[in-house]
Amino acid sequence: MATRRQRWRLYALGGGLGHLTRATALARAAVARGHAVDLLTNSPFAPGLPLESWLGPGATVHRVDARADKATTVAAVGAWLARSTPDVLVVDAFPRGLAGELVALLPTVRAPRVLVHRDLNPVYVERFDVARAVDAFDLLVVPGEDAPFAQHPRAVRTAPWLLLDADACLSREDARRQLGLHDGDARPFVAVMGCGRPEEVAQARETAARLRAAFEERAAVRWLVPTPQDGGLTVWPALAVMRGVDVLVGAGGYNTVQEARATGTPLVARARPRLYDRQALRLTEAERVEDPGALEARVASLLSLLLQAGPRERPSAWDNGVHAAVEAIERVAR
């Protein structure tokens, strides 16, 4: 436990599930140390996730409608910041705010400010003078990958952030059961994930169907979704069952990549275009494919290796950077 209970505000606006996942990982670790956490998100997946029960007592989640226009979203941020003075404000990824609103709002926050600083598109960094916005923060926490201002004098690097520590994840056997495999089914499990833009969700569904048709005799193929989708198997957080996944098919988002690497899960991924994030830089040559044909061929190759050699040995533990991040934030909080 920390020496004193602190009141944290976590700003995690941004499309998809990435910002919310990273903030939820931090919130879970902070709540476990006795802090009160108030999390703001506009993820379209947030309404369908049991965030409060999963985070536990001490956490509050404010959900801004993902369909809201810019003015409505900015007003919601202003109202959230004006509610009371926290001990620390933590902002994920965007030092100016998603809509640039924090440039005007940050000076009204009479509390230390922390930026979760990951890779950002250099075009965005230069166009909007992100360097000046970064200087408004008392601490930059760099969560496991390089970033434009990682050498800033107030920057602290940590290992990648994960939603769960290794001892909170299911064993391979229990994970396979939760994924719908009976004990006598020895086929490798291929998980297809995709929860970004609507067209990417549709592509993930189609990818799962295509791989299932191609490999059903050799592997169990399922499309994993965080909230109910027609044709998908609802699993959240996916990290909890990752030990039961033999091949992970997805994109190059921060959480997918870091979870695959931490758990030793072979990843086959396409780099998705993003305004701020550069997924292609995050993926290694062994992980990245360019088109559906290459994806299917890579999965086939991995399945052949698995069928010859059996399931690979997986890490029994990993360094979860959220714990070092919580300790660093505690030091700057009032």
Automatic annotation (TrEMBL):
- Identify the domain of life: Bacteria
Q: Which SUPFAM superfamilies match?
A: UDP-Glycosyltransferase/glycogen phosphorylase
Give the protein's recorded name: Glycosyltransferase
Please report the organism this UniProt entry assigns to the protein: Corallococcus interemptor
